[in-house]
Each structure stands twice: as C-alpha cells, then as structure tokens.
Fold each of these.
Amino acid sequence: MLVTSALVSGICLGSMYGLIALGFHVTYVVSSTVNFSQGSAVMLGAVLGYVFAVRVGLPLPLAFAAALLACAAFGLLVERVLVRPFASRGSNAWLMATVAGGIVLDNAVLFTFGKEPRSFPPVLSTTPIQIFGTGVYPLQLIIPFVGLGVALGLALFLRRTRYGKSLLAVVQNADAARLMGIDVKAAIAASFAVSTALAGLAGMLIAPLFSVHSDMGTLFGLKAFAVAILGGIGSAAGVMMAGLIYGASEALITALFGSSYTHIAMFAAVIGALALMPHGLLGRAAIKKV
Amino acid sequence: MRSRFPARRLTRRAVLAGVTAIASLGAFPASAQESIKLGLVAAMSGQSAKSGEAIVRGLTIAADEINAKGGVLGKKIEIIVRDDESNPAKGAIAARELVQREKVAALFGGLDTPVSLAIVPFANSSKVPFMGVWAAGTPITRNGAPENYVFRVSAVDEIVDEALVAYAIKKYGAKKPGMILINNPWGESNEKGLRKALETRSIPFAGIEKFETNDVDVVPQLTRLKAAGADALFLVANVAPSAQVVKSLDRMGWDVPIVSHWGPAGGRFTELAGPSAAKVHFIQTYTFTGKLSAKGAAVLDALKKKYPEIKSLADVTPAVGIANAYDAMQLTALAIAKAGTLDGPKIRQAFYEIDSYDGLIKSYKKPFTVENHDAIGASDYIFTHFVDGEILPLTQ
C-alpha cells in the first residue's frame, strides 16, 4: 500500500512536472532559449483560473479558457520584452531577465491577488475512489492522461505538420528559414505562448488539489527544469518520461526513506544521471550543421 | 581666538546658569511632551501582514482605553509602528531607530521568532523593555542575559508542546503519536519540544515526518506514519501547508486525531482544508467566540467601533494576536505607572512588582518574576477548532 499510494501520487505530480517541462522543450527546440519564469506561469494559470471562476463567476470551462489565453499572452510578453532584445544581440542575458520577470510577476500577484492562500473550487476532487487500497481523486487519474496527450500531440504537430516542421527549421538555421519564407519572429513568439500556456494548464490542473497563492509555482518551475534537462530537452517524449520518473521516484523516496532525504536524493540523482547521460534520457548531442 | 570670544567675560556662575538652562531646554520637551511613545516592530507587509494588523489593533484598543482614563503618568500613550517585513536585519534596525531616535519607553514585537531573536540583544544592552506578543520561540525570553529586558504575553513553543502532548493523551488516549512538521526552524524547535514532552512521559513516537511549505501531496509521509502505527498526529505548520495535510488524510481515508500548534488559526483554514478542517484541534491563547467575559465583550465592541470592516467574528482574526497585544499593552502601562518614570531599568523592575491584572486572556497574578518572563503558562492554553470559518473553543 505504501508503494502503490506513493506511485499514484508520484505519477500525478510527475505528469505535472512533465507538462511544465514540455514548455521548456517547446521554446528550446524553436529558439534555443528557455523561459525561466515558467514556475510563475504555473502560478498565473492557477491564480487567473481562480479569479475568473470565483471572483468573476465565469463557468469553469470558460474560466479555464480565459486563463489559458492570458497565460499565452504572458508568454508573448516574456518573449518580446525579456528574451528577444537579448537573444537577437547574441547575449545570454535572457537567462537572468526571465528569472527577474518571474519574480516581478510573483510579487505583483502578491499585491493584487492578496497575501492569503485561497482554495480553488474542487473539480473531480471531492470523493476519492479506492484503487489498490489507496484513495485517489478522479482528477489525479486524469492529469497523467492530459500530460501524455499533450506530449503526444506536440510531438506529432512538430514532426508531422508543415507548420511544425517549419518551427523546427527555425532553430537549425534562422536565416535559411527566413529565406524559405518562414516567419521566424512569429514562430519563436508562438513557441513562447504555447510554453506558458502549458505551464498555466499545469497550474490549473493542480490547483484543486492544492491552494492558490503567489509563490506556489517557484518549486514546480525548478523541478520542471531539472526534468527537462533529465529527459533531454530536445525530446518531448523524453521530457514527459523524465517527468513521470522524477515524480514517482520523489514519492517513493519519501515513502521509503522519509521526507528529510527527498530533495537531497532527487537532486543528487539528477546530477548523477546527467553525468552518465549528458544529453538526458532521449536527448541527442546537438549536431551543428554547417 | 578665545580672547575674542565674549563668553570669556562671563562669570562662572553665569556659565553654569546658561548650561543648566540649555540642558533643561533639551530636557524640556521630554518632560512636557503630551505622550509616552511605545514602539512596535512587526510584519506589516508580506505573507504575515495580517499578524501585524492584528497586533496593531490589539495595542490600539488597549491604548485608547488607557488614554480615555487619562493615560499613564498623566500622559497619553502613542504607538509608533515599524514594518520588519519578517526580516531580522530590518527588525533590528527598526528597533534601534525607535529607541535612539523616537526615544520609545518600550518595544513590542511581532510574529516572527527570528526577528524577535535579532532584537533581544539590543533590547538588553540598551536597557529598554521588549514585550513579545506573538513569536513563540523559547529562547526569546529565556535568553540567558544577566539583566533580561524581554517579557512576553504569548505562547512559548516548549510549553505549547507540553500542552499538545498532554491533550493528545488526555483527550485521545494516545499511546504512540506521530509528528508531521513543517521543514523549517519552527518545525525543528517543536520537534525538540515534542520529543522532550514525550520522553518525560516515556511515551514512544511512531515517527517524525517533515514536509515542505509547497508540498502538494503529503500522502507518502502520512502513509509512513500510519504504517508505523501512529494513533494521533502532532501537526506544526502554517495554514496552507496544514490544509494540505488534512486534504491528504481525507484522500487516504485515515481518520486520525490531529493535535496542532496554532498555525491553522492564521487564515482561511476551513476554505483551504474543506469540511475535515474541524477535525484539527489546535492551541490558542484566546478566542472571541463562545461566551465572552465582560472584558471580552467590551474589547470586541471597541474593535467593531474602531474598525468598521470587522462585521462578524470571522473578521476578528487572528484573535490571538489581538488578545495578546491587548493584554501586553495593559501590563506594560501598569509597569510604567508603577515605575513612575520612563527609565528602562525601573520599568523592568516594575514588571516584577505587578501583583494582579484582570485581563482579557485571564486574571494575571504576579505575571512576571525574575525567573519567569512569560505571563502565559501551560494552564492558560485553550484548544479550539474551526467550524464554518469560525474558531470555536473545545472542552478539554
């Protein structure tokens, strides 16, 4: 029971990490940059979902959609203000700029949304169902499917569709892509919008199981980046797999050895795994095509 | 140079008179000022801002009451508030500024133990009484200074842990309780206290589990405690993480008694934890619900009058902050009146001389002695729980 309940909890959290990490993946494969305010986008999704559903009183699906759109808009803003000005000059300052952007957003939400943690209305999380002797909310079972579905959809989109392939072309050679008639700027901006929308989706999925407050996303963002690197940031399947493995191992370590060791063991394992597989689980060494 | 200075021609007597005049001029505003300044260093912004607001309200209601009766030593009490942002360094600077520039006669402290601990050495060395009204860290008052200027009207972790263990045994017949504690210095300090309280009764514990403020799922930790045979849980965490523990227990379907420190009282616990919130029995020093004493009713009335945003009892939160601050202000005013001066050492001595004070939390008899600077003891705690957003007392 100890192990099964840990696995169920772990896989649910793991698919959340995976969703956020997919956000890192998307921008990386298109522009070789990532948005370090992903954790704040998770928070933004949950907070806006709460505001639209509870304070404005929109029906849940509508509140969800509105919050997702707002998160995508945040992604566009991040790309335009925090990434493009630096990346276009070949500077790596977007690293710090996106971290700073996340901190600014967290604090802005603290002052506007309020200091007290609030509770998201329960969605499929009122009566637990019993599976293998452990209580599970239906929502916890749905989250992994959403995560896997999104990962699969994203992989298919990038590999099989014309527009997806054009996105991947951007990272290979932006100039050549531009000459081929691909709108490079729009492609990169779109990848950031998708990335923050994924984080926002993760935030709204976890919110009914958690509480909504301004600093809820920070640790998620950090773990998700570890997951993205672990999975091989260039591979959607690898990232999702790493998320599930990370979540499950985290819960298992806590269950078997106690929570005092969880963070030490997990982050040490990440370092160890990267030493053995420098490109992550399914990542490939970048080949510079000249 | 000197020969050209007119003062050279002044007689010694005249110089002396002049010096005295100037000195008394400097002293004049102090003796003639209309108010006695008292300082507060607390979190007025950030996550704990609500605690600072409660303390200000408690202090203000008490000061208004005292001032309406003519004040202390014929002067009105004035409260000067500084925000420490829950940051020990900022708190220490604010305390220094209040003492050195504003010349406050005494200081009040806020919610955060680390901030209070940073102010303690300064209060002792500058000989200004420092009254704690919230932070429960044991070493704040038990600081080992030869001349201790730190007093407190609040819970003390070590005594709280003692009370939590006694309650779990008496109420639930706990034989092998487990601990689920937040992973920070507060959790650490209570782990020590709980271990000690269990050891003195030779009761074994099922396990000690820690969790993080932002943990979504505490099921793995709780499953370990359940597997180890825990028959009751001690919970130490603030409101949001406490709610995650309750939600995780719900999901596991594990109905186990929970005896908690006062964390859940700090926010919307019922909203966050759901209906099972009522199962958590937590410690308080005071609650405005239930049958109130005459004093309680009067204070509640004054609060509603002064702060129109207080409409129901659910708005009088956190009650402990208000009540502790109210009694702390009254006791401090008594000490100043007894000392007859604003001199720190004399006020400190006067704290020991307070015989009795009929307060909001209790009737204080000799609240402070040289050995004990904590006015609230083990028998003064009450256990409460949340019912529909209101904190209700439980019978022990």
Note: The mean pLDDT of chain B is 88.
Amino acid sequence: MDPKQPTELPDWLQQPASAHSQASKTSFLQRNQRHLRSLLTRLAQPAPVVKNQRWHLAPQINLIRLLLLVLLIALINNVTLLWCLALLLGFQLLLLPPSQLRRFVRSWLISSFVALLFVLPSYWLTGPGTLLFFGLKTSLMLANAQYYRLTTPFQDLLSGLKALHCPDVLIMTLAIAITYLRMLGQHLLLTMEALELRTVAPTKHPYRLIGAMFGNLYLKSYAYALELYAAMEARGFNGHYVRTSPTRNHWPDYLSLGPDILVLILFIFWRN
Amino acid sequence: MHIPDNYLSPATCGTLVAAMAPVWTVAVIKVKAQVKEHHETLPMLGIAASLAFLIMMFNLPIPGGTTAHAVGGTLLAVLIGPWAACLALTVTLALQALLFGDGGILAFGANAFNMAFIMPFVGYACYRLGQKLHHEKIGLAVGAYLGINVAALVAGVELGLQPLLAHTASGAPLYCPYGLSIAVPAMLTAHLLVAGWVELVFTLLVFQFVKKVAPTNLYQTPTRTNQRPWIALLIGLAALSPLGLLASNTAWGEWDPTELKQLLAQQHLSTQAPQGMVHGFHFQALFSDYAIAGLPVSVGYILSALSAILIFLLLIRGLQHGSETTN
C-alpha cells in the first residue's frame, strides 16, 4: 500500500512569505529591544577584567588615581605635561592583551567622537586652537575613564567606595542596582517581545502602551523589593558592609601614585 | 543632559559637589527614617536606580520619526519619595559615569545637582501643590514638564558660565566654549519643545497606571513631621547672620551712589554716579541696613533675622487650614 500522493507542495506554500513588517509603527519597540539585548549581553557576559597580578593595586587607590588623573587633566593647560600624562596612560595600555586593547580603542574613539560633536561648532566661534586643545584634553580624560572601566571589576569599585568611607546605603544601592538592572531589563525585554507578538494592528496610542509597560515594571520592582528585603532579613542583614582589610604590602599602591603626584608637583611649580 | 568631563571647570565641578554634599547627607538621613516605617525602601532604592537606568535608555517615539528619552526624575519622586529618588538617581548617574561612560566623572556633582536634585524636587513640589489644590494630575504634569526644563536651564547656565569663569589671558575659553547666549537657548529649546513633553506624557501615563492598579504602592507623604530640627536650623542661621560683617567691603551691586561714584572713578569709567540712581526713589526703611539705634550692629542683625523668621512663621500659620482644635 503505497498511496500515490502528490509530493509537491501547493503553489501558495511554495511562494516566499512576504510578511508585511510594520517597520514604521513598531520600530521603536524593535529598536529598544535591540538596545536592551545588547545591554543584557553586556551585563551577562562582562568583558574579562585584566588584572596585573604583580602590580595589583588596592581598589581605593585605583579610584583615587582615576579622580586625580581626571582632575589633573582638567586643570593642566600645559601641553608638555598633558603629553606626559598621555605617555603614562600609553605605557599602562601596553600591559593590556591585544583584544582588550582593541576594545579600548573602539569605545574610546566612539565616546571621544560623541563628546566632540557638541563642541565642533565652536570652530567658527573661537578658532581651531581652542577646539584642538579641548579635543585633546577631553579625549585624554575619556581614555583614562575607559581604562579604569576595562581594568576594574564592579566588586572592586564597591570595595574602593567602602574604603573611602562612602555611606553603606549608597554602596548597597549600587550593588542592588547593578544586580537588578539585569533582572528588570530581562523582564522589560520579555514584555516587549510579548507585546510585539500579540500586536496584530498598529498601536493607536504607543505612549499608553509604554505607560502600562513601565507601570508594570515599577510594580514588579516593588514586588522584587519586598522579596529581597525578606531574603536579606532571613540572612541576618544588619545594614552594614564589612570592610575587609587584608594584610598586604602597600608600597605598590604608593608607588603607583608617584607619577601622578610628580605631575601634580610639576603643575604647581611650572604653572607660572 | 548628561554633562561630559572637560565641559565644566574643576572649580565649577567642586562647587557643585559641595552643593550636593548637604543634599546627599539629608537624603541619607531622611531615607533611613523612611526605612524604619517601610522596610522595603532599602532594597527599593537599588531597584529604583536600575528602573531609572532603564527609563533613561528607553527610546520613545516622537512625531517626525525620531526618538527621545525620558529621565523619570519626577516620576520616581512621586513613586518612592523625593529623597529616595534623589539617592536612586545619584546611584544611576554614578553607574552611568563609571561603568557606561555616560556623563563625566568630574562632572558627576553637576549632573547629580541637575538630575538628582533639581528635577525630582521641582517636580515633586508641583505635584504636592496640585495635590493640595485637588488637581494632582495637573500638578504632576506641570511638575514633570517644569522639572526637566528647570534642570536643563540650570545645566545651560552651568555650561554658559564657563567662558566667563575660565579663560586664557587672550580670552580663549578653557572649557565649554559657548557663552550663556548660546548654551541656555540651546538647552532650553530642545527641552521646552521635545524632551519636556516626552517627560510629561511618560510620567503621567505611568503614574495613571500605577494609581489605577496599585494605589497603595505610591509614596505617601508623612503627615506629621518633626519640626524641631528646622526651628533649630533657623535659629542657628539667625545667630550666624552677623558673619557677613566680617567682610569689610560692600557686597557686589549693593553700593550706594557715593560708593558707586568712587568705584567708577577708580576704574576710570565715569566721574559721576548714574543720574537715575542719584535722583531716583530712596526708601528709608525702619531698620536701615539691619541696624537698630542704640544697639551693636551684630545684635541688630540677629534681631532682624529673628523678626523676619517670626513674621514668616506667623504668615504660614495664618494661611494654614484651621481644622485642628486646641486642647
């Protein structure tokens, strides 16, 4: 028994499906989904942080160095000193693996371009000198900030803040924010995907939809907060962060601040 | 509205961090008191910070095919309270600056001043005013629109002041090169025409949704507050009011015609005070220059300060609703 049935598909099934994408109507949902997905990927698989094992600095020293460097670059108007600071950063970048270095260059160029975009019209107001000098300083600041981001894990940022006597409430808020950013982002993405799947006609009032979406997200976050507090209480949370003070040699920390302090001294005495 | 690094001078950044320090201190104290009543406020702060982050990265469609994003300062103030919103937004800005490169590290104080202090507090004040007048939605809408626009105005002023505050000997600006005449209109136009309306509609719709679905989850303003610290602060400030006498010169712009004439002559601008000032209207106050005849000037200052406080307290008391009965 081998029934002879036609093996070919009917014509209407063979034709390629031409789904009418309502790009203009739903583009804001799709665009936000794309942004959210990239954020979630970034949060789920953070770039591996490169730590120099031989020169592992205390988290607070890293934070102080960043603040000192950014402040110095903002204050210094001497091109030679700025050049010295750029060289210092360049030597630090040499220690990064090639893949990290490429990441650094890409994100540094993008952030510098965005920051400079707003200042470009000043070329017609104040001339090229101001624009070039401003561009150089801004790029150097952004490079230092980018280097800190690449080489410092989030936990070190929290430890650094704690060591610098930042209030516990703020540190805890930061820690919870970064954890729940992923959870809330995931929830928002799922909601958007569900909305897109259920939407068969163009939305008349997209803002009403967005209002409901974020209202729902707030209520969800409220429920998370209640559950989280119950969990914290169950684990004996008393509202204080323990400050770990491992016995370690501090000379690399002080030594690492040396070049920055040297530039600071040069800035003070060379200013006039 | 996130100001990047190098747009503001270090002096401006330092001043704004110093301006924010008491706000953060009071916010931490207030939130700790709030946590005693509502335990969930503690984790809610962190979750609200991540919510604010998501609000700021969500692109909303605007007519013309482009998009804009809301900040959510007023919304958060209404949902979790203004002080908690201040802390949550501060944390969001710190996260954006340190981990995502949005907004400067040195300019963190300025960004926090604009977006974590001015925006939620202006918005919340309008909302409370609307609530008192039984038109909370109008209050919220006005608050959301005004909050973001006042914050944009302040950001514009901060940026626009830079060429005046920091420049080389030849007059070339060292930081933001745009003066007030460019920075303020540029910031305000974008916010008055687009961002303000986006913030208004977004805030109103989320608030409506939450109020409809779970009205108890909205922040409830404490009915009775301890007024003692405020009275102590006012009395302390009154006691400190003669501090200004330590300065020997007259404050800028408060010169009388004789002093102004001397100043103009010193700067080789004119030998005479403006005629309008010399022949203008001169009001003789009861306690001119806060001085009371027969008393030392410092005592006159303290008495003037106490009198002003008393008059304002009496005015506020008189304008309050008389529903309370005395025992």
Note: The beta strands of chain B are 60-61, 67-68.
Amino acid sequence: MAEQEWMSEVRAKVGREYGRVYAWDEVNAPMIRQWCEVMGVDNPLYLDADHAATTEFGGIVAPPAMLQAWCLEGLHMNNYAPGSTDENPYEVLKTLEAHGYPSVVAVNSDLSFERYVKLGEKLYYTTRLDAVGEEKTTALGTGYFVTLIMSFFSQKPEGDEKVGQLLFRVFKFRPANVPKPVEKGAAPAVPKFKRPKPGISDDTRFFWEGVDAGKLLIQRCTCCGTLRHPPAPVCIKCHSFDWDTVEASGKGQLYSFVVMHYPEVPPFEHPNPIGLIELDEGVRLIAGLVGVKRGEIRIGQRVQVEFQSFDDGELTLPMFRPVAA
Amino acid sequence: MTSKNSKRFDDVRPGEALPELAIPITTTLIASAAIATRDYFPGHHDMEAAQQLGSPHVFMNILTTSGLSQRFVEGWAGPAARFKDLKIKLGAPNYPGDTMTFSGEVVRTDAASREVEIALKGKNSMGSHVTGTATLVLP
C-alpha cells in the first residue's frame, strides 16, 4: 500500500543529524547518590570516594546506566540547558502526532560505553534520526518504530571526547483501544494474568476434585477393568457406562513433549515445557513439566507427579518433575 | 554492600546463572526513580495522568529499567566489573503492586578481551518486562 503523502516529509528526515543538547548539571555526586539510593545500587565505585580513589578512575564515576539521565531536560518539556540546539531532535514524533499517532512508548535502550564519566564532567549529546519503520500494528495499536542514535560527549579543552552512545527506539502509535477516561478516584485496575481454568463437566469433575485433594485419579471401567484417560462416559473397550476411579501412583515416563517458545503467554513459564506422560498404570496424560533444564528433556525420562497451587490457591494442577530412573 | 567480591573472568563459564533478584514494584519506586533519572513525564508519577493515557496506573520508565538491569548484573559481577554495553528491550509494563524478578545467564566469554556477555530477563505477572544483554569486562 502506498504511504500517505505526508510520510515523505518524515522519510526525508531519516539520516538527519541534530545539534547538541547539553546537560543541565555536570556529573555530580549528589545526583549519583540519589540515583543509587532509589535503584538500590550499592557499588562503592559510585558512592565511596575512598574506594573509588583506588580504582583506575582515581575517584567516583557515574553509574553507566545514568548516561541518558544527565542530559534530559527535566521538569519543563523541551527546556534544554543553555547553548543547546534550537532544533528538536524529536521533530518526526511531532509530525506523526499531528497525523493521528498520539501515543508513545519506549521500546529499546541500547547503551554502549566508551568509558565511564567522572565527577565534574560536562556532557552533551547529538542525535541522528536513524530509521523510521514501515507502519506496523502491534498489540498496542498501529504506528511507527522510530530509532534515534544519540552520541554522548564530554566537553574537554583539548577536544571533546565521545563517552558513549544510545540507540533509543520508540513506538509512536494510534492506540488500538481508545483509552476510556477513568473516573476521578476510580481504583486502578492493574491487569492480573491468571492461568485459564479447566472446563469441568460431569465426566471430568472427579479428576479435578481428585487433583484438589492431591490425588491423581484415573477412570476405570467396572465391567472390564480397562483404565481410560482423558475421562469419557463410555468404556472404549466394552462400551459399559459403569465406572469408578483408581488413584494412580503418579509415576511414569515421558512419552513425548513440546517446549513452547513463542508466543510467550503469561503467566506460564517461558519457555513452557509440556509433557505427554505415560503413567505406569498404562494411560497417558498431558501436563506441564517442572524442574526440567533446557536441552536436557528426554523421551523415556522417569517423571513423578506433584500438585502445584496457582493464583492464590484458586487452581491446583498436576505437574510432572523428572526423577532418577 | 551486596558484594565487594568481584567475579574474576577465569571463574566465569558460559551457562552460569546469575542469582535471581525480585524487585517489588511500588508507586514510590516508579515515581522516585523516574525523578532520579530526570524523567518528569506525568505517566510515571501521576496516576490520573497515566489513566488519561489509557494506562491503569503509573508505569516504570525505561531509564529505571536500565538502572535496575545494571543493579542486577553488577550485584552478581561485583564492583570491579566494567560495563561495555547494556542493551534492553521492553515488553509488559511494570505497574505498582507487581513484582519483577530478574534472571540471567552468561552467554559468551572472550578470553582475549576478558569480556563476558550476560543475557537478562525481568519478568512480572504479565510476562517479560525487559529482555536484554550486558557486556562486562571482568578482572
């Protein structure tokens, strides 16, 4: 599909370099200390002048992940420190916004470091608009991935020195679900992901009640003694409707398995290993595997059931764990 | 100090798992860390503003996720490790009331440069908040 006419304005800017944006403050100990306090970082390289003096830096340096923070504008949007460029390195985001893509989320932050920065250094960055992708639709909505590459420098009398680089990618989009204005004071509804519950019928209720009681129950035909799983109303061998249950030992072997890598589905483990287990009693069932190492799952592996509780006790599931043969 | 003992390159092997780190996500953490990273975007400290943006609550900013990722990696590596890079990709947002648990492992070592690459992941109740890599130089 041909792009909208106005996108040519955006495309024309790809590759463009934008001028310097200066840090408001030189690299300083109070901002470092407060950053470390909030992040829970206790590395003495950033906090303890005596320790830092013994390192190759000869004094305190800033945590590398702080690099971008030094040059942010602060409370007032687009209020850059004196001397900064008048151009807006984010101008394409404004163009996209004007054409119906109001929302933005940061997607990638790829920091690389030439060296650590010391107290007293004055930083600035320049920006290159690296890429604007094709229009994409994600779970969030439809829009464009915009990639900026920021180069960070330290001002030096003998010539400015590059200290690091940041590839910063944002998704500028039109939300798939137009946000509903929330009533003032309404309780926040942070989504909670729970495991789907089994659909329980008269045929399967015994199984799930058994699981809740920590028992792995298998249906048995009371006419011919044949075991069957999954549960069904009629004996597969003699067609009798009469049945009871036996408690399985929970021991068996891995008959087959699959490891789900994609998509990642919360709240399941990722990757998610799922086994087809042949119980020693002879029937097979499908269940999650636990305690398996990637690449070490083997068909024929001995396994043992264990009952795990999920979602604050709302759901109990039989899971199988490898055991020694 | 979590660890004054630094990992030495010779002691690290690909496949080594980093100790997990569980971080409770609170409004206070999200708001104070946004400010500590000089990010005053209202969605990171003002719940009503966040809700107007279609978000159920304030959400963690990417600079905080970078900071916490650094903490996770250097908590294992110790103070003598030096970062060459820290590359992260965000997924499910971090909202208050959740817990993010970091896990990671060594995926590459290079004896000539003494570099070690770590693959990391921070999971919350909605899935992966962050996946990424960090390259360190170890003594």
Note: The radius of gyration of chain A is 30 Å.
Amino acid sequence: MSKVYKQVPFAAIVPSPTVANEGMVTGNWRYLRPVVDKAECTQCKTCWVFCPDACVNMSADEGVSFNLKYCKGCGVCSNVCPVGAISRVPELDFEE
Amino acid sequence: MPIKKRGTGLTAVADAWQLADIDVTASYPIRPYTAVMAEVAKRIANGQMKCEMVHGEGEHAQFSIAHGASMAGARATTGSSGVGVTYAFEVYSPIAGGRCPIQALVGDRTLDPPGDFGSEHTDCLTLRDNGWIYGWAENAQESLDNSLMYFRIGEDPDIMLPQIVAMDGYFVTHIAQEYEMPDQEQVDKFLPPFRPQFRLDVNNPVIMGPQIEPEMGPPLEWDRNVVMDRVKAKIAAVTEEFGKVFGRKYAPFVEEYMTEDADMVFLLQGAHAITCRSAIKYLREAGYKVGMCRLRWFRPFPDMALKQILPKFKVVGVIDTNTSYGASGGGGVLLVETRAAVSELANKPMIQGFTSGLGGETITHEEFFKMAEMMRETLRAGRIIQDSTWVNFNDYVEGASEVKAAQQEVAQTKE
Amino acid sequence: MTLAVAIDAKMQEVTVWTRGVTLAKEARDTATLLAKAGKQEGKYVQSFDNYVDLPDRIGVPVKSYARLSPEPIETYYEYENYHPDVVVLAEETLVKGNDILKGAKPGCVVVINTARKPETLIKWISPKAELPKVKALACIDANVLGAGVMLTFDGTEGAGDDTKIGAGVGAAIAGAVAKVTGFVKLESLVDIAENKTAVRQGWENVSIMPLG
C-alpha cells in the first residue's frame, strides 16, 4: 500500500472557521460534564463571562446551556457560579 | 566503569556534556531540543553537574550567550531545532569566524510551513556555508560519541571551530534506546580541558570580532577555508583514537553496509539508516545487490572518501531528507554535494536523487523497496532515467500508479 | 513494486490511552513496566510516548506505547502502534468519543480502568465496525486500590525519568494487562515495579468479560 496524502490547497490557505473548528473538536477532553440546575440559576451570566472556550450559551427561553462538542470540562463555570447552580457529573453517566 | 543506560539522544548528549564538564549552557525551549535543557537543569539542581545555565529570550540570544561564554574561555554549549535554528542565523558566521568552538545540539525539525514537529534536515543544512563542522548521528549512542569527538576536534588548537551534534528529531531525540555512558576516566583521557590561546581577560585585554580593514577580509576567509581541510585529517585521527579509548569503532567519514559486491547503494545520513539496513536485508534475499553508504559528516563534506568509495558501484541513490528548492538536479542538498564530489572522476557511477522522509515521515520498508526498484531500472537502462524522484510523487516504476491519483490531488493549485 | 514480506509480524503492541498531564505519568509507567518486564523475559522491547498528541494540555487524550517481540524490532523509529493487540484506557471516559479500536488486530483485548461494569461500556467503544475484533473486555478499578497518582513532568519530551516507575495506579493497570494478555509474567512485573502490592492487586482484581 502506498501512502495516501491529504489534499492541500494553494499555499495551505484554508477558510477560517467562524463559529466552530471541526479540525479541533475538544469535547473528548472532558470527563466531568457541567450540569446547570435551572431552578437555582439566576442567569447572572458569570459562567458565560468566565468560560475560557466560549462554550456557555445564553438564551432568553432556555437560560444557560453548554456547547458539549467543545466544552473541555475544566470546571471554571462551576467554580465561579455565585449560587452553586452548576454541578459536575461524570460523563459516562450520560448516554449521549 | 561505563554504565549501560536506557535513554534518548537528548539524555545521551546531556551525559556527554556532563562528562565533558561544560562550563556554560544557553537554553531556549523548542521541540524536540527542549529535553536536553530540562535534563541539564535537573542535573545542575541535583548537584551532578556544575555549570552555568543561562536562559536566552530567543535562539539569537541563546547562541550569542554561548558565543560570549566561549570568548571568555568557557566550554559552552547550546542547541535548538527547526525555526529556532534559523532564527539564530545571524550569529553562526561570527561564532565560526571568531573561532569560538561552542557545541550546539540540533534535533531536526521541519521548517514552516506546516509547523511540523517531525524531522527534516533542512534546518541544519541551511547553515552549511558558515564554517561550522557537523554531521548526523543515527542513534543515542552515536550522538553521545559524536558530542565527545566534536569537542575534541573543534577545540583542537589547530582547528578552533564550532560544532553541531545533529540528529533526527523524534527518532533519535525522543525514542528511548540502550546506550553506554562512558567512564569519567576514559573521557578525561580523551578530552583535555578547554584552554584557548586567547580569551577575554581584564588583566590582558583583547578585542574579539573588531571591525577589520577590508583588505584583511579575504586572508581571514582564506584561513577559514584552510582550516576546513585540516579538519578532515583531524577527524580521521580522532575517530581512530576514540575507538582505542572507548572501544567503539566508527568509520571516520562514510559507513559502508553490505557494499562488498553491491551494484547499487543508498547514500543517506541520520536515523533512516536503521530502517535502511533492515530493508537491505529483505532486498538481498530478493536478489537485489544493494548496499548502503551512510555519511557521518556533512561539513566538511567527505568528498575524498566518496571519490574512493563510489566508483565501486554502478548506481547510487542519494536519499535527501531535506529540501533545496530549485537546486541542481531537482533534489536536495545531498544530491548536489554527492554529484559534485565525484563529477570529475572518469569511472563515476550513475547518481540519482530521492527525496523522502520529509515532514518527519518515516521512510518505510516499502519505500526503500520502491527506491531499489527504481535504481534497478536505472541500472538496466544504463542511464539516469530521472534526475530526482520525490518518493510517492513522481516514481517511475510499476506499482507507483496507485499513488498517482493522490499525487494529482496534492498538486492542485489555486484555480 | 513491493516485496511480500511481513515486517515485525510477531510484534505485540500495547497502546495505553490517558489524559494529558493529570494521568500521563501513570500511563507511561504502564507501558514502561510492560516493556521492561518483557525485556527481563528476553524479548526485544520498546516503549515511547506519542509525539503528535498535545501532551502538555490538561485532560487531552494522549497515548503511550509498548512493543514486545521475540525478534529484533525492525520498525524501531515509529510514531505509534498502528495495529494494537491491547488497548488500555487509564481513564474510563476515554471510551467515549475516541476511536480506540482504530487499526486493532483481530483478537485484540480492551482493558479499562473503571468501577463500572464491562457490559455498560461496550456501547461506547468505537469504531463500531472494529468491535467484532475484540476478544475480551477487562475492567480494573485501579483508582480504589490506594496506589495514588503521581504528577510530574519528568521523563517527558525525551528527557530521562528519575521518578519512581510503577508507584501508582499505572502499576495496577500493568498487572491487569499482564493477566488478561499473558504478554509478561506477574513475577517480572512485581520484580521491577515500585509498588509491588498494586501490581498484584491489579492482577487479582481484574474482571474479564469474553466477547465474540
């Protein structure tokens, strides 16, 4: 079998990812998943400010949610939450 | 007693530096060089080594620190990889021209693009015209031995030149292997303390590296040229003596493997020689009369040795693990140098180039088989079919067709 | 043209998956112990860390490798184990979202450091198409054996490792791998590991679920 190389565009110039980088999916770095208790959450956005990977989403209807495709499970959100609404749960406790 | 150890090319060189009792080392991290500075720092902290470690703010500073230390009479070392080597480019010629015999360790790394960690000899080969002496080690043991030999040769009062202990990044620098750390007594016998004739000394002031008159330039450069010739004799003598003191015998310039009855040989340097020997074993079983010549030195280039060795063969396949875009023959640096070495010989062999192992790729057994087949085609045709072949890209034998599609895909340019 | 030769045909390859920084030393110890034990038994061996992973990022999936062969290893300068006989996960969550069976040999064994039941983990093993190649799934709860985890950067990036080899959970995992695969003897591991109790406990407490 001969080596099969990947295609390279001219001068390795590629389109820049604008929302998510499919070449660097970091969700599998995580072994503890952040889970928000919606009843406790005051929607103060502290977690949204602190998340180093911009993985906290805020919406008027849903409140806080996490982008689990990229969340590395670092736990900063849980640590900074002023009301203790974010817990960290073992990843294997979830089917998906 | 020498100690049997398990370690990498980097720990082996750290061992050599410890045995050589270096005075100063200048550091700046870059993969794969990094571990040697970690190793030396650890040994200083543990009290195993007494040495001043100065951390530069970049490679340019790093080599300048070693330069200054050497001027002050210290046995100084440093090192780098890839773009770190080229970032320090300005200071290579002043160090060699100032005849400061510092030692650098270079674990090869591909230049950008694409920012690959893997080995490619281009980084170190770019400074081939600056008056440093260097060659490639194929394993940890040889890198340790080279380091000691290089100190001895470079610091010789007749020579006084900086040296580079070059080795393939990852393969030699990161893969642990068995090697022997020599005894301090052996090393003390082999390597005298560094006592340069001139040094920076407040009681006896000198100026090193002054702005000289233009008329003084060419004689200075003639001197640097002449010393390169002297190095060759010194290499032969020191390699011989090394074998006597340490019991490990190296060919001074070119190691030959299975060349007695060979029609064709691979000519290469560095880590890929390990796989090459294994591939030759299979090729021999399949009836290919093939051998290997491995260069132990690149500067000075072993042209006299090659003039004697290469006419024995009909085809020489020079394997370049480097790029020199636009070079004569379309291959790399080794092809150009090898052809030039024997160009005036009447009975010179046919010399073709292969570019392989770029970006730190391993040169696989199968790729060696493919190169052997192409060399046999050359042998049968009695002429060079293709000056330079980039393995997996423009191979000219049957069986290469399956990569043609991949190649065309790769070669796409902006449309 | 290619010669029909089988290179390193008898070589056994062990790939240990782990987490960058936090658990890297333990996985390297597992690989190192297996290689050293093999050497003690007269085999040709090799162990090394992956060079292309991003080992200085906390939590990133990284790999360490061990190779054992009755014959001299011919592909000595390689980047990874392309056809593992054994896949070890030093941390259970790695089973999710990583193609741990990529290139695995038929009859390969998966060993996971977990308190969970093997049957609950199968659903995550990927790629799915490779699952029939797995002969057995073994689980060892190394974390509760009390050996602990050692945090150090010593021994990374090609430097020497002056810290103890096999003092923590890596030793227990090596014991488990030895029992499941039979690649090395328990005595050889006990002989060289810093924490001999952990090796024995790993050997004794591993639960094996045959598959296929």
Note: DSSP finds two helices and four strands in chain A.
